[in-house]
Amino acid sequence: MAKIQENPPATVATTPQSLPKLSPSEFRIYNSMADHMDLFHYRFRQTWNALYTAASRGKRPEGMSIKQFVNGGLQFCEHLHLHHSIEEMHIFPVLARKMPAFRKELELLTQHKQIHAGLDQFQAYLEACASGERELRMTELKALMDRFGTVLWTHLDDEVEQLGAENMSKYWTPAEMRSMPM
Q1: Phi and psi (nearest 5°) for 157?
Q2: What is the pTM of this model?
């Protein structure tokens, strides 16, 4: 079952004992990509929660038309596709030079594929609802979301964790961090 997050995510939490000895300035440099990514992921979580809550309750948010709700779901799909495309074309190749988690055959890109298998079905359903070909049924929407929700939420967390200061400082210098594409 997919989860709903009620509180906004915090910046990657690390304990002083587990961190390499980083000054506050170095921590900001090394954690900058995690902070930036978490902003995008927070928006995905917000939109997911709104869609999933409505699907779970069996009704749209108060004052929202079917068209607005379906379009919100389609925007979520489009934004997530675009976000992953940018990562795969511009961010991951740079990170993969030194970080195994960002290489094509490993976890984060595998998660993208798993997410998109479910996301594509979700998007096709919403497109059929938008065109009038199908009637929007919240139980069907929830079932589609449940197919990829767990891997999506795991991915959102894993990616930010990989980009956190503790991990980034193992692979990159502060100068390299300043030249990252993000």
Answers
A1: -75, -45
A2: 0.85
